[in-house]
Amino acid sequence: MDTPPDVSEKAPALVHDDTRDRLRTGDVQDPTSNSKGSSDVTSSRTMSASPTPPRRRSTSGRARSDVGSILAHHSSVGDAQSLASIDRPPSEEDKLPASKIYHPLSFPVIALLMPASIFGVLARLGLQAITTYDGRSIFPLAWVQAAGCLIMGFALGMKEPFGRFYGPLYTAVTTGFCGSLTTFSGWQLDVFESWINGTASHRDWFRDAIDGVGKTVFTLAISLAAVSFGAHLSTLIVPLVPALAPPSRRIRYSLSALGVLVYAAAYPAYFRLPAAYRHEATAALLFSFPGTLSRYLLSVHLNPRLKLFPLGTFAANMFGTALLGTFQVLQSIRSPGPLSPNACSVLKGLADGYCGCLTTVSTFAAEVDALDNRKAWLYVILSWLISQILLAIIIGPSLSAGHVSRQITCKYV
């Protein structure tokens, strides 16, 4: 017969925690070191009082905080779950009741990613078309990254109001729209084309290097500044946002159905509209949601795996950059001859739609801004360096062999 435990005894784990806490403050001594007397305690107190260099504030040891607050207060995340929450819908950590929490892979969340991907691609292609002109001072992708990161930072700060109204809208704005509007692979290919003078500009190798470094530094700086500014802007707006009543079940179901129908309309748009529209937009719309969904699944499953390193976003950006380099080679074939117009349109759609939505600068910038300085720089350097190496491995041999041109040879019509 078991003897009932003595209620005056503490559980082993509690005894350990209590002893550890008192040891930290110097109230008790280690039982194995009684012969050392009080000199060890004095030594430990002296060591704990030694000055330490100032560091960026971290949220480690506290309850999980939303990344929007972290960015607005210039602190850094201290756990993998906080970092992984950027792409996830609001949850109980965002002070929401269970009735307003949606699973990351629930149908309402996935359904709203469909139209958000469509609108993100359209916004990116439209911004690039507007900002591409002779004599421009800023390269077109800079506008794209800045706009997407600004909206991303603002949405991160509005996560709790989004969750109290309708959680899937948050994921639609951040992962869907901003993630599809910005493009990491396009940024890296733009930098690589500067190294090889892909625009056939009249300049020497030194100016090629300056152009590549400029696109790297400027894109990184404006993306980080935009996401931080968006987070600060949200702190001014959140107190003014009224408490809206959540949508009814009928409205929620209608939004999900409408989201599916919006993406389904991309298929007849591709086949029914004139062929000249395919390489400009309709082919990209066709592959937008698969790219966003691939990135989202990688983020949900891989980002929590490593502490303070977003493995899912990193994998999506690297894989998308490698794919974009491959599609670039196929669109630039010189011998035996360019591909057919239909094949060229599909490749253009895969590059703008799938790769553009699979890779993201907005989430990348938010993660960099939220990480501690050393981890942030490690993340940036690894992402940039491996992307450039992948493009050099994929595009370099074809260029040196003379099988592809430095410019795209595809004829779309």
Structural features, described:
The chain is built from 16 helices and no strands. 66% of the residues lie in helices and 0% in strands.
**Fraction of residues in β-strands:** under 5%
Q: Which spans of ≥5 residues are poorly predicted at pLDDT below 50?
A: 1-55, 59-64
**Alpha-beta content class:** mainly alpha
Distance between the termini: 87 Å
Order of helices and strands: HHHHHHHHHHHHHHHH
Cα shape: globular
In DSSP terms (H or I, runs of 4 or more residues), the helix count works out at 16
Relative helix content: 55-70%
Largest sheet: none
Number of strands: 0
Radius of gyration: 26 Å
Overall mean pLDDT:
84
List keywords for this structure.
413 residues, mainly alpha
Short note summarizing the structure:
It is built from 16 helices and no strands. The chain is an all-alpha fold and 413 residues long.
Which helices and strands, and how do they pair?
Layout: H1 12-25, H2 38-48, H3 67-72, H4 80-84, H5 107-130, H6 140-157, H7 159-181, H8 184-195, H9 205-237, H10 249-264, H11 266-272, H12 278-302, H13 311-331, H14 341-358, H15 362-370, H16 373-401
